[in-house]
Design goal:
CATH class of the largest domain: Alpha Beta
Radius of gyration: 22 Å
Order of helices and strands: HEHHHHEEHEHEHEHHHHHHHHH
Number of strands: 6
Strand content: 5-15%
Strand order of the largest sheet: 2-3-4-5-1-6
Distance between the termini: 55 Å
CATH topology of the largest domain: Rossmann fold
Number of domains: 2
Helix content: 40-55%
Number of helices: 17
């Protein structure tokens, strides 16, 4: 038990352990990188190491602080409990007065985007003012153990006017607290916040390491492990949660939208598929956009070197090769550009179905 269980990005792990060993822990850290590469896991491990009773630059996993903080590994039951305690239909005042805070140890607190309701969560949860105010108040308290740690998962969902509250903490940082911001990209945060954090970029985990990690999943055969590792594209979280059959179905549905767009098919067929992708799928819309990017990248690879290309979706090679003969490089570039525009508009709460329909129609009418 300890940092040895963490997979990938060894350079970041070495740097964090060095800080703990020297007793020179920064007041603010910014972890960026794709979903599922271990940003939250390492932040939680860091909180354990910063408060472990037995070790200095690692954590034992056996002392009381380590065990308490370890309960933050799975945030879902904690979120459900917090939402249930607040009520199913809270008004705005209640949401801000009773912020969603995940805490299993008095010195460690996790802030996540607030889904507001348990049964009918909002389409795009965000970190709210009440949560940031709570961090602002608690950050200056003296720790009961060694160090207070606040983890802000999904820090990019802070509204920029509310982010100024957080900026005030960074401008006058508490000596005995560390704030760890987790975001997919640093550019989604205010420049003034970025400049006050020590930044670490988490690269995707190599496919070979993901495949080796999956050996503990007894339900996967060797060929399946290899396929899951390739499709996950360096995301341990995605690999662990992946249902191969469901993943294949969803990726084929996304590929069908691309095929219809490349063939210039009537909008009616495209609308039926985009409605299904945005309204009936259980996966987040951002994940669906990632599948579009993944398949378009494979098309680009095949267009450049069909024989030697290493695909992100190897199980769809035959379909992708057939499509690459029809889709030009200019079309793939245009499709990627349209997706980039939609991705940027998500922060402004654009209607997801209309946005995806607009992308599909623009590609079909090229």
């Amino acid at each position: 038990m300890g940092f040895a269980d963490f997979l990938g990005n060894e350079n970041i792990l070495t740097a964090l352990r060095g800080m703990l060993r020297a007793g020179r822990v920064p007041n603010a850290l910014l972890f960026t990188g794709p979903r599922g590469v271990g940003k939250y896991t390492l932040a939680r491990m860091f909180a354990q190491a910063a408060n472990c009773e037995r070790m200095n630059d690692d954590f034992c996993g056996e002392c009381a602080p380590c065990k308490s903080i370890a309960q933050l590994a799975d945030t879902r039951p904690l979120i459900e409990r917090g939402l249930a305690e607040r009520g199913e239909s809270p008004d705005t005042a209640t949401i801000e007065r009773t912020p969603l805070l995940l805490q299993t140890h008095p010195d460690v607190c996790v802030i996540v985007p607030d889904p507001v309701r348990l049964r009918t969560p909002v389409a795009r949860p965000v970190i709210r003012m009440g949560q940031l105010r709570a961090v602002q108040r608690a950050a200056y308290f003296r720790p009961g153990a060694r160090r207070r740690v606040f983890i802000l998962d999904g820090a990019e969902t802070m509204r920029w006017d509310n982010a100024n509250i957080f900026l005030k903490i960074l401008e006058e940082p508490p000596e005995s607290a560390t704030l760890i911001l987790l975001a997919s990209s640093a550019d989604l945060l205010l420049r003034t916040i970025q400049s006050r954090c020590l930044r670490f970029y988490f690269a995707p985990v190599p496919v070979e390491q993901v495949e080796g990690f999956l050996k503990r999943r007894a339900d996967l055969k060797p060929a399946q492990r290899k396929l899951v590792a390739q499709i996950a594209q360096g995301s341990i979280g995605t690999a662990l949660e992946m249902d191969l059959e469901e993943s294949g179905r969803l990726r084929r549905d996304v590929l069908r939208v691309i095929e219809l767009g490349a063939a210039g098919k009537p909008a009616g067929k495209l609308f039926a598929l985009t409605a299904q992708l945005t309204k009936t799928e259980k996966v987040p819309f951002e994940n669906i956009l990632d599948l579009f990017y993944s398949l378009l990248t494979d098309l680009l690879e095949l267009s450049c070197d069909a024989k030697n290309s290493v695909l992100r979706n190897p199980d769809l090679r035959r379909e992708l090769e057939a499509l690459s003969a029809k889709a030009t490089l200019d079309w793939v570039s245009q499709a990627t550009s349209r997706l980039d525009q939609l991705h940027g508009r998500l922060r402004r709460n654009v209607n997801r179905q209309l946005g995806l329909e607009n992308v599909a129609v623009s590609l079909a009418s090229r």
